[in-house]
Amino acid sequence: MLVLPDSGVVTIGSSQKNPSGNKDIYVVRTDKKGAIQWTKHYGSENNDEGLGMILENNINLVMVGYTEKTGTDSDKDIWMFKIDIHGNDVWPNQRIRNYPGDNTAMDIVPMNDEYIVMGNTIGAFEQYVNPELNSVFIFKTDNQGISTSSFAFISDNGYGSHYGTMIETDPDGYFYILGKAESNAGTSDILLARLNLTLNIDPGWPKYLDVNGNTSGNALIVTRENLHIIGSIANPSGIESMILCITDKNGNIGRQKQYNLIDNHEGLGFSITSDGGYIITGGSGKADNDKSEIVVVKTKAGGVL
To answer: Closest by alpha carbon to 124, among 114, 110, 113, 134?
Structure first.
């Protein structure tokens, strides 16, 4: 979700619109009161989903996601497109990256007159990673989303699969990537990686934040002194709770809070309020059924309820 200069909102995701019942990429713009101004669908005869988006110069929206390959067992290609805030196409064609294997673009950030795209890959790039495991995949494109350079991968390091969920820029010239890493024992830790402007992973990174449970990082805010992370942690019974981690710029945990609310809760997004607290959004559901609800949590400074 992005908030526009006029306080309107643009969201990206998917909807079941095409005749086959598969998903199309779905983009919606509302005004500041929530009234829909326009909607856009993009997609093929297969499943497609929009997962990340940036606002460029307060005018254009650059979006990323995936489109399923035809004739494969749900393997995906990276999808990228640019429109303006009125819903008009800026690029004449959608950008489809038909790399080998199964590839998904999760998020995008600007870099001067170029873009950095972060996603996940499995089943290919064996010269860089174990193709049997999922790896985080980062690359740079020009401002037309066409040429590609400076590939980087985050994988293995004695763990199993690595999954990226979000990439954020830093005023000091770094890129921070958040996600999760699965161990060979079947557990998972929050994954946190730092890359420099040439997309090289900094020495001593990535970090694996072990907070005594199966954890994943879902949203990241970078401030001058700290990294603020919202995610989820599961106990041995599989019950999930929201978790807040605050680290320094070297990835060392300074504070963490776990919110053991009723039933399953997962933190998916958040913002920092003017009083130093947090507004956390996510999903809530009972462990014994598949129904879920939206949950919103407001904390005091430092994450105290």
So the answer is: 134
Partner residues linked to 139 by β-bridges: 117
Q: How confident is the model at residue 290 (pLDDT cuts 50, 70, 90)?
A: low
- Nearest in space to 103 (alpha carbons), one of 149, 151, 81, 136: 136
Q: Are the C-beta atoms of residues 206 and 263 closer than 8 Å to each other?
A: no
Distance CA 244, CA 257 (A): 5
pTM higher than the cut 0.90? yes
Residue 180 confidence class, pLDDT cut points 50, 70, 90: very high
Beta sheet of 226-234, edge-to-edge order: 214-222, 226-234, 240-248, 253-259
| Cα–Cα nearest to 239, from 266, 212, 208 | 266
> For the chain, give me the number of helices (H) and strands (E)?
0, 23
287 has a pLDDT exceeding 60: no
Helix (H) or strand (E) holding 83: strand 76-84
* Percent of the chain scoring above 90 in pLDDT: 70
- In the prediction, which pLDDT does 187 show? 86
3-state secondary structure of 288: coil
Residue with tokens 């609800």: 293
The set of residues, in sequence order, having a beta carbon less than 8 Å from that of 273 and lying 6+ positions away, is 279, 298
